[in-house]
Write a structure and sequence with these properties.
single chain; 63 residues; mainly alpha; 2 helices
Length: 63
């Protein structure tokens, strides 16, 4: 068990290809995640604005 088997070497090779292969795949994934988080936060802000407008409209006295 002290030596690396072919499976260990293949697993290391796949990990290296995923991390360093292509055009900065990790940075692309992180950028996509950041865009998704920003879109989620913007969606939450838009939802809060709609709720506050409805509450203010309901609170106004009608003559």
């Amino acid at each position: 068990m002290g030596a690396f088997s072919i499976w260990h070497l293949l697993l290391i090779g796949v990990a290296v290809l995923l991390l360093f292969g292509g055009r900065n795949q990790i940075s692309n994934l992180m950028g996509d995640a950041a865009k998704g988080i920003k879109a989620f936060k913007d969606g939450l802000k838009d939802g809060d604005d709609d709720d506050t407008k409805k509450k203010k409209a309901d609170e106004e006295p009608k003559a």
